[in-house]
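Incident log, support desk, overnight shift.

02:14 A customer reports that sequence design results differ from what the structure should imply. Their input is reproduced verbatim below. On-call engineer (initials T.W.) acknowledged and began investigating.
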């Protein structure tokens, strides 16, 4: 440890070789900035000297930017010049409309937040895990409201069974212990993002992690706006500093999480099944009834449960139905690898 190099200010912001390698000689006069909040008409970014409002070209659409993005800007005008490739990106299909909605970028760890009550739903958690795998972020399940149940162990066991080596942390979001329990993912330069349904305690946890400064930091987001029905909703996402550590991105509650365009994530989550498919006698085996099916053989000998194969099949079908044919599961594979 004594020889450890101190991170530079940029590295404390989450900068790494992955981004440095994208800098070209022509970029010499530009400075890197990290996007801290995205609003309908403006974007705030953080640089080593503090936060700035990014100037955008007239044709820019703020929906193309994600909180956590790294961009290059002109230091004198703060004019946006170009966005650097993303190391990870978490996006989802909105309830209405087409395309994907950017949720957060360059997130090292995705905290999938659910509470120790009726919100706990293994099927939904499975979808989040697939999304995290697809995004390229490491998933951690956070069970909030552990103080309000006698069955924490039960929730914890069920969550741990979802994926091999999955960290599951049960906590009380109001308690300062929460920061201690999550410390291994919140180190200097690390970025975490919180996702989960409305009301599971994401904002509460962000408050606890960031300390009292968060509440007064109205400027950087978490603004409550009114939607069309006059309801109060959290619409903005934003990047907040964790004192003495990394960064946390709060995201609005997600009502319905659709599975679409996530072939790679499904393959990772169900790697045990996917790896067997090439051993089936028929190349187009549906693993339902064919002779010589390696997947059915594994179910028979108890390697995995028939329900797991069922869940895999239904997610593959849902993904196929919802993925536009232009960027369908097959077409995506070649362009999707690591470049977002
Ligand atoms: N007992 C207990 N209550 C909690 C805990 N975490 C959150 N709460 C309460 O649960 C309610 C909802 O918490 P929020 O933090 O607003 O939930 P959210 O996930 O940010 O909700 P959205 O902003 O709608 O996405 C609040 O009344 C919190 O005080 C916890 O760990 N224990
Ligand atoms: Zn088969």
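02:41 Re-run completed on a clean worker. Output:
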């Amino acid at each position: 440890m004594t020889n450890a190099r101190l991170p530079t200010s940029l590295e404390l912001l989450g900068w790494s070789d992955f981004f440095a390698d994208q800098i070209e000689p022509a970029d010499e006069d530009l400075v890197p900035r990290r996007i801290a909040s995205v609003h309908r008409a403006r974007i705030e970014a953080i640089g080593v000297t503090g936060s700035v409002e990014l100037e955008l070209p007239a044709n820019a659409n703020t929906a193309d930017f994600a909180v956590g993005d790294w961009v290059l800007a002109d230091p004198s005008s703060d004019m946006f010049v170009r966005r650097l490739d993303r190391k990870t990106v978490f996006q989802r299909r909105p309830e209405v409309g087409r395309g994907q909605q950017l949720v957060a970028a360059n997130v090292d760890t995705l905290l999938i937040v659910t509470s120790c009550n009726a919100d706990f739903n293994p099927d939904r958690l499975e979808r989040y895990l697939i999304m995290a795998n697809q995004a390229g972020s490491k998933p951690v399940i956070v069970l909030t409201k552990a103080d309000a149940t006698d069955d924490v162990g039960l929730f914890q066991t069920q969550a741990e069974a979802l994926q091999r080596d999955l960290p599951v942390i049960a906590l009380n979001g109001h308690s300062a212990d929460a920061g201690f329990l999550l410390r291994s993912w919140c180190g200097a330069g690390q970025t975490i993002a919180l996702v989960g349904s409305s009301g599971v305690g994401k904002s509460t946890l962000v408050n606890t992690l960031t300390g009292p400064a968060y509440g007064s930091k109205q400027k950087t987001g978490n603004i409550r706006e009114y939607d069309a029905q006059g309801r109060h909703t959290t619409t903005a996402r934003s990047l907040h500093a964790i004192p003495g550590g990394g960064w946390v991105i709060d995201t609005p509650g997600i009502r319905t999480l659709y599975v679409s365009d996530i072939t790679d994530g499904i393959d990772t989550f169900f790697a045990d099944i996917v790896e067997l498919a090439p051993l089936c006698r028929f190349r187009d085996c549906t693993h339902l009834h064919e002779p010589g099916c390696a997947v059915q053989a594994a179910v028979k000998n108890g390697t995995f449960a028939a329900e797991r194969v069922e869940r895999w099949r239904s997610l593959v079908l849902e993904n196929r139905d919802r993925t536009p044919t232009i960027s369908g599961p097959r077409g995506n594979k070649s362009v999707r690898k690591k470049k977002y």
